[in-house]
Amino acid sequence: MKDDERLAVVYKAETEMDAITISALLEQNDIKAAVRSRQIPMYDGIAKIFDPVWGEVLVFESDLEEARQLVADYLRAWEEER
Question: How far is CA 73 from CA 8, 12, 16, 25, in A?
Answer without folding.
Answer: 19, 16, 20, 11
